[in-house]
């Protein structure tokens, strides 16, 4: 509304001021105007016109002034808004920077969490290690105790763990007669012996006491020994009858000549099929060393193994049986040849035995696992050198187990002969 009026006023002013310096040209340039009349205004006419319009122009100028001030105010507001916005932008920038801080701090938080997890895991490990340490300490304590016990044991002198029974007697039957009921190791002193010696006594449930003079069971002892060794005895005496031995010719001699009662030599045999057989010879006697421990017996008492001591007709020669019998034959070893042969039976067969020319029974022979053997197996001489009882198995069959034992004739039938056979069960795998 103010603008058209203002424009007109300004136009008038311009027109007036430009006309003023030129004076004379006003009329020429005067244009008819309803405000000035039909004619060109004079100075007075213009003044009158100005005076007439001056209050309106003044108020218009005031209005313009006010408008300008309003505009200026608006501008300032805008400026302030811009500044505010700028500030906001800066703040926003700053806040976007703190976002990266947030990111950083959250990654730090992640790190912290990770470290916490690591710490927890390490604490768990430490706990487990502490447990291990504790159990190790306990083990150390146990080990220390064990080593203390061992040290104590080691400081004690070694004890012979072989149990020797307290009962003594002239032989095993004497010991059994005194009430001993357990088989095992005992000291005996036959009447003609100057000192006691150890023997294995086999005492059965009938109160019979056998004095064992020879034992083969597994080939663990080499029976290829010289005269002195056969005289003194060799191998091992065990309280549980698990070892092989030859008691010794001198002891056997003393046992056999110290009693006026007839002594029975019982021979028990086991083959590789576990079969068991026996042979009994009564009035057994072994001569003194000066008679080369000569074997004599009264007669064959019986048994299912047969009488191999009586010799055997091998069919090679009519004199076989005569030259393979053992009754009345002296003892021979490879270093003391007392046989009836031009050669050396004990040397050829690798044993000590009552060699004739040479044998039908040969219980100190070479041990052959499995039993059957041949001339090729028999070494450089190739003779029958196994553990032989030829009235049961051939001379090329070596027995698995043998026992030679002594008992007074009066006790051999105690409990009956059958009982004697039953008691045989002490041998082998029984
Ligand atoms: Ca000879």
Automatic annotation (TrEMBL):
In terms of SMART domains, this protein maps to:
FBG, Fib_alpha
CDD domains registered for this protein in UniProt: FReD (cd00087)
Q: One of this protein's Pfam families, by short name?
A: Fibrinogen_C
List where in the cell it is found.
Secreted
The answer on whether this UniProt entry bears the keyword Calcium reads: yes
In this chain the Fibrinogen C-terminal domain maps to: 163-410
Family matches, as InterPro entries: FIB_ANG-like (IPR037579), Fibrinogen-like_C (IPR036056), Fibrinogen_a/b/g_C_1 (IPR014716), Fibrinogen_a/b/g_C_dom (IPR002181), Fibrinogen_a/b/g_coil_dom (IPR012290), Fibrinogen_CS (IPR020837)
User: Any one Gene Ontology biological process term?
Assistant: platelet aggregation
Question: Could you cite one Gene Ontology molecular function of this protein?
Answer: extracellular matrix structural constituent
- Tell me which UniProt keywords the record has, alphabetically: Blood coagulation, Calcium, Coiled coil, Disulfide bond, Glycoprotein, Hemostasis, Metal-binding, Secreted, Signal
Q: Does the keyword Chaperone apply?
A: no
Main localization of the protein?
A: secreted
GO cellular component, as recorded: fibrinogen complex
Task: Give the range the annotation lists for the signal sequence.
Answer: 1-19
Q: Which Gene3D superfamilies match?
A: 1.20.5.50, Gamma Fibrinogen, chain A, domain 1, Gamma-fibrinogen Carboxyl Terminal Fragment, domain 2
Q: How does it assemble?
A: Heterohexamer; disulfide linked. Contains 2 sets of 3 non-identical chains (alpha, beta and gamma). The 2 heterotrimers are in head to head conformation with the N-termini in a small central domain.
Q: What is this protein called?
A: Fibrinogen gamma chain
State the organism of origin. Parambassis ranga (Indian glassy fish)
Q: What is the lineage of its organism?
A: Eukaryota, Metazoa, Chordata, Craniata, Vertebrata
